[in-house]
Amino acid sequence: MDSDWETKLLAASKRESEEQEKYFLSLLDQASGNIDFNTAKTLMKTYTSNPDYGTQERVESVLETGEKKLVLQAILEEMPRLVIEAPEWAEALLGQEVEHRVFLVKEMLGLMSPQVKDAVNKVAESKAFVSFYPNAELLHE
Length: 141
Description:
With 141 residues, the protein is mainly alpha-helical. The protein folds into 2 domains: 1-66, no CATH class; 68-141. The protein has helices spanning 5-12, 18-31, 37-44, 55-63, 68-85, 87-109, 114-124, 127-132.
C-alpha cells in the first residue's frame, strides 16, 4: 500500500460514482492480508449510514484477514461513533464479534475507555440485540 492509502480510501469511501466505488474496492484489495492496527482503524472509519451497495461487506472480509484481537480493538474503539452515526453497523459488527468471540470481547472491554464501554453496553443491553445475539448476555456476567 502506498503512503497515502488512508487518504485515498477515505475519499473514495464516499462512493459518489461508479468509478469511485471501483476505486474504493481496489484500495480495499490492497489492504487484504496487510491489516495492522492503523489500517483496521482506517477501515472502521468507512462505516456510515450512507447506502454502500454491498461494498461495506467487502470491508468486513478484508478486516477478517487481520489478527482478531487487533481488529476487535479497532471495532470497539469505533463503537462510540458508530452508535451515533451508523447504529445498524454498530449492532452488526458488535453482534458478529459477540457471537464468535464473546470472551475476547469481554476481555478487551476491560481495557477500553468508559466511552467505549458505554457505547457497547447501549447496543448489547437492547432486548432485540440479545434476542438476535444470545451470547450478549455473557458480557454482563
